[in-house]
Amino acid sequence: PIIYVITPTYKRPEQIAELTRLGQTLLSVSGIHWIIGDDSSKVNKRVLELLEFLGIPHTYLLTPMPEVYRNAVVKVGRKAWRRSKRAFVQLPRGVANRMGGLDWVKKHASSGVVYFADDDNTYDIRLFEEMRYTKRVSMWPVGLMSSSGVSTPVLQKGEFIGWYDGFISNRVFPVDMAGFAVSVELLHQAPNASMPFKAGHEETGFLESLGISVADIEFRADNCSKIYVWHTQTVRIYVSRRLEFMRKQYRDSNDDVF
Ligand code: UGA
Ligand code: MN
Question: Binding positions for Mn(2+) (predicted)?
Fold first, then answer.
């Protein structure tokens, strides 16, 4: 079966480095189709150039985050901000991108597997063989999760007994996006499945909308005892605007690198 790897991405200084690392991992995996959902309304030439160089079967989609969410932090306003008593309001990252990827898969494939691979995680190529024969939904541990270290289903003698995750809350499936794959057949059986624009609840919302239960889960990676994917997070660089004068000084040069 073909694995449809759906990767949300967005423009920032780290973007091409992230996609290079992920893309060169995917070069070692056969039988995949890479769907890159760009959180933008215009094509990013650098991303296209990388995809062309890599030569992995791929589809590049423009899947911008709806404006209402992008401006959410601003719209909350001072009072509402205080009332919510939250340190910060998180955007639902990568949702429009993944939904765009799902629409593409539903239109172009009747079988196979879908995996949501964020551009900043670290993937062992063995992960892809673990998910390749997913009947409905498969799951495995994700390493380097903040607060819990690992996020994983817990098995005892091969039987599911609970979840280990730093954010259980009221989530039916307290898992990370990198910790599961679903079959294309299941997507077709649940045509109204969708991912909510709600930070922290994208995974459970999507899995619940597929109408699955714990009994449907195929536990992989040696009964969830091996880690083949890590939730790595890249430290962001800060580009000083004060260097604008230097950029102006070097017109008609290799100035598109800086
Ligand atoms: C965690 C989960 O691992 C994500 O799968 C989940 O979408 C996210 O939380 C959430 O709940 O919003 P985290 O590492 O905190 O992820 O988030 P990022 O890696 O910054 O973003 C997830 C994906 O969305 C990445 O592939 C990123 O490139 C993309 N993204 C991020 C956008 O497309 N647009 C943005 O504005 C930000
Ligand atoms: Mn991430």
Answer: 120
